[in-house]
Amino acid sequence: MSDYIKREDAIDAVCGWGPNDLTEAIRSDIETIPAADVMPVPAGGIGEMSDGYHTFNGLYYQRMVLFAALVRQNRGRAWKSWKHEGGELCFCGGWFIVGIDTPQGTYTYHYEAKDFDLFDCEELPVAKHWDGHTEKDVTRLLSLDVRPVRRGKWIDHQEGRWIYAKCSECGTVHDVKSNFCPNCGADMMEQEGWK
C-alpha cells in the first residue's frame, strides 16, 4: 500500500517546481486522472480481500474444486507432478502442478501440497512440456468432452502363448493394462483390485 500516493500529495510533489503556467497544466492533468479507492489489506492477508460477496481465498478454493472435478471427469487426459518439466520442484517445493491435455492444448494450475490428493489422476515424475499457455487460454477447457464416463474392465485375452488385455467396452486388445482404454477411453479404475 505504500506504493500509492494521494492525489493531493502527487500535485504538491510535481507542482513544487517550474514556471507557474507549467505547474498549472500539470495540476489540471493530474486532477483529471481517475483516482482509485485504496482499501487496506485485511489482517488475514490479501486472500481475505472481498468484493462484498467473495474473498480471493474463497474464489481460489472454488476454482480448485471445479478443476479437480474436471480432472476426475477426464482422468485419461489429466496428470500431476511435484516437478516442472526441467526437473525443478514447483516453486522450490511445497507446491505441485496439475494439468489436463485438451484437444486445444494443455491447461495447468499450481496448488499447495496439502491439496495433492484432491486431484485423482496419474502422477508423473516431471510435468509435461509447457506450451506457453496463459490464463487467456482457459477456454481450452471448454473443448473437453464431458459425456458420461464409460466404465469397463480388462479381460485377459490370449493369443498363442501371450496374454493381452482386452477392453470390455470396445473389444480392442492392448499390450498392457492401464487406468483407461487408450482406444475408447473407458475408465478401468473401478475394476476390483485395480484402483
Backbone CA Rg: 27 Å
Strand proportion, as a percent range, falls in: 15-25%
Structural class: alpha+beta
- Shape annotation: elongated
Question: N- to C-terminal separation?
Answer: 50 Å
Spans with pLDDT under 50 lasting ≥5 residues? Answer: none
Number of strands: 7
- Number of discrete helical segments: 3
Helix content: 10-25%
**H/E order of the elements?**
HHHEEEEEEE
The description of the largest β-sheet is: 4 strands, mixed
Oligomer: single chain
- For the biggest β-sheet, the strand order reads 3-2-1-4
Number of domains: 3
Question: On the 0-100 scale, what is the average pLDDT?
Answer: 84
In short:
With 195 residues, the chain is of the alpha+beta class. It has helices at residues 7-14, 20-32, 56-73, and strands at 78-81, 95-102, 105-112, 122-123, 154-159, 162-167, 173-174. The radius of gyration is 27 Å and the shape is elongated.
Structure commentary:
With 195 residues, the chain is of the alpha+beta class. The protein has 3 domains: 1-38; 56-143, no CATH class; 151-195, no CATH class. The protein contains 3 helices and 7 strands, in the order H-H-H-E-E-E-E-E-E-E. The protein has helices spanning 7-14, 20-32, 56-73; strands spanning 78-81, 95-102, 105-112, 122-123, 154-159, 162-167, 173-174. The strands form 2 sheets. It has a 4-stranded mixed β-sheet, covered by helices on one side. Strands 5-6-7 form a 3-stranded antiparallel β-sheet, with no helix packed on it. A hairpin with a 2-residue loop joins strand 2 and strand 3 (105-112). The radius of gyration is 27 Å and the shape is elongated. The mean pLDDT is 84.
